[in-house]
Design goal:
Layout (H helix, E strand, L loop, with lengths): L4 H19 L8 H14 L3 E6 L3 E7 L11 E7 L26 H18 L5 E7 L7 H7 L2 H4 L4 E8 L7 E3 L2 E4 L1 E10 L3 E2 L9 H18 L7 E10 L5 E2 L2 E10 L2 H22 L2 E8 L4 E3 L1 H15 L4 E3 L9 H7 L2 E7 L18 H15 L3
Bound molecules: nickel (II) ion (NI).
Length: about 400
């Protein structure tokens, strides 16, 4: 079965919502307008329950199928979209470009929100399933762990969610195709903050100083050896030091220096090993140089791990919508996604929906492709009708 006809009928409305949301991007948990827009639509559609304020500004809609789930059958599935935008100055000439200076929907969360609203409208209208479909609209995907905040507010237990599914658009993947894999899909992301306290002084008297720049250089070299010489070459890890601040005169050895960077890994084991080695390298360089080095190693989003049987379910649905040849098995990515928290809480799967030849995610010229709406929305409704078959 290709895209669903009724979804195609709804496309102009979904596109209009998407463009409205695009014009009004909001950051992290401050998605008040977007959340109000979502809640208003869900009430209009006749959802059986609309809950707001989960994880501060998250919104949840419950849609009951035309009959309850059978004894022993799956009863409730959750479908999740993200609502937040990014601090990027939009560089498109779109007639519906951002009206909020310095903010932009550069990751397509406008499209994700609109497609899930479209699915909610269809499901509330047709109710051709047994059990509950729970539509989840979360804030703060872009670094704020909004998914974790909603779970902490009782998302999974309050609505009885048994399985949970997520979707992201994929630039470079043709419109009308999907990509997915079982197991680790996206990386854990951790932050490194290092402050070096050396001993400043005259550039001509280095023997009286502890050169914080040289200490920083040794740290970078030592840290770079972790991926190349500690991690099994068949495992994946990225360690990037992306900031190095020190000094402001050519004849002064600076007292202090600061380094900041990020670590990306695909398994808990490798994640733990990299952290352990970062701590050892920092301690070793401090001992070798006599500098005082403070390290803050902060763990961010966990690895996004797709569960095997839910990946099979998602793949089957995507194939029904897009055709067998348009659903691809993808390699893991070293980017991160806070849907990882939902997949730690419940079995489920995260899928990519083709966004065609657009600029990349987080690029100022990026735009969500409205042609993808019928595919993403059809995927959502088919996923509900298949897993909660009436
Ligand atoms: Ni995103």
């Amino acid at each position: 079965m290709p895209i669903i006809n009724r979804v195609a009928d709804l496309q102009p409305d979904i596109q209009a919502w998407r463009r409205d949301i695009h014009q009004h991007p909001e950051l992290l948990y401050d998605v008040h307008r977007t959340a109000a827009f979502v809640a208003e639509r869900l009430r209009e559609f006749g959802c059986d329950e609309v809950a707001t304020g989960l994880g501060r500004t998250g919104v949840v809609g419950v849609i009951k199928g035309r009959k309850p789930a059978g004894e022993g059958d799956l009863k409730v599935i959750g479908l999740r979209a993200d609502m937040d935008a990014l601090p990027i100055v939009e560089a498109t000439d779109l007639p519906y470009a951002s009206k909020n200076p310095g903010l932009m929907h550069a990751c397509g969360h406008d499209g994700h929100t609109a497609m899930l609203l479209g699915a909610a409208r269809y499901l509330a209208e047709t109710r051709n399933f047994a059990g509950d479909a729970v539509v989840i609209f979360q804030p703060a995907e872009e670094g704020g762990a909004g998914a974790a905040a909603m779970i902490k507010d009782g998302l999974m237990d309050r609505f009885g969610i048994e399985q949970v599914y997520g979707m992201h658009n994929g630039p470079g993947l043709p419109v009308g195709s999907f990509a997915i894999r079982s197991g680790p899909l996206m990386a854990a992301t951790d932050a490194i903050d290092i402050r070096i306290e050396g001993h400043g002084g005259h550039a001509a008297r280095p023997h009286k100083c502890i050169d914080s720049i040289l200490v920083g250089a040794q740290l970078i070299t030592g840290l770079q050896s972790i991926v190349s010489r500690t991690i099994d070459p068949l495992d994946s890890a990225v360690l990037s030091i992306c900031e190095f601040h020190a000094g402001n005169a050519r004849n002064v050895i600076p007292q202090t220096a600061e380094l900041r960077g990020t670590v990306r890994t695909l398994t808990a084991e490798v994640r733990g090993l990299v952290e352990k080695r970062v701590r050892e390298v920092v301690a070793g360089v401090a001992q070798m140089t006599g500098a005082k080095i403070d390290l803050v190693y902060e763990r961010g989003y966990p690895v996004t791990v797709n569960h095997a049987s839910q990946t099979d379910i998602a793949t089957k649905v995507a194939k029904e919508i897009a055709g067998d040849g348009n659903v691809h098995e993808m390699p893991p990515m070293m980017g991160a996604e806070d849907f990882s928290y939902m997949l730690e809480a419940r079995p489920g799967a995260f899928i990519f929906c083709g966004n065609g030849n657009s600029a990349g995610l987080h690029h100022p010229a990026y735009n969500f492709d409205d042609e993808a709406i019928v595919f993403g929305t059809s995927y959502w409704v088919k996923l509900v009708e298949n897993t909660l078959a009436a």
